[in-house]
Design brief:
By secondary structure, the protein is of the alpha+beta class. Helices cover about 40% and strands about 15% of the residues.
Length: about 110
């Protein structure tokens, strides 16, 4: 599993989730200046959106958007500590907060960067 990231970007949340679930993964740094990965690959060919976080699973699934990646990771590991089980109303509160943080709260911090 590879998580593409840029320091100071929104890739920290899925990085934390990967650490929490204990799944093996490789971090791949992406430069937004030239859209190159640390090993010289053209990131736009890997992810046409050109944004991080971006996850490629061992099975070849490509996922973007931090909240979706985090939800996917918690679900594949069946980690109800991070994301309550399907049907549990607490699950929807977690998803509600994840969406709020990524869509509303996050944009408030843009001027700092």
């Amino acid at each position: 599993m590879r998580l593409f990231y840029t320091a100071g970007a929104c890739s920290l949340a899925p990085h934390i989730v990967l650490q929490e679930i204990g799944h093996d993964f490789k971090l791949v740094n992406v430069s937004f200046k030239n859209h190159q990965t640390e090993d010289g690959q053209d990131f736009l060919k890997i992810n046409p959106k050109g944004q991080v976080p971006f996850l490629i699973t061992d099975e070849g699934l490509h996922l973007s958007e931090g909240t979706i990646i985090s939800q996917y990771l918690a679900e594949i590991m069946q980690n109800t500590h991070l994301l309550p089980a399907f049907g549990d109303l607490k699950r929807y509160k977690v998803l509600e907060w994840m969406n709020y943080i990524s869509s509303e709260l996050h944009k408030s911090y843009a001027p700092f960067f």
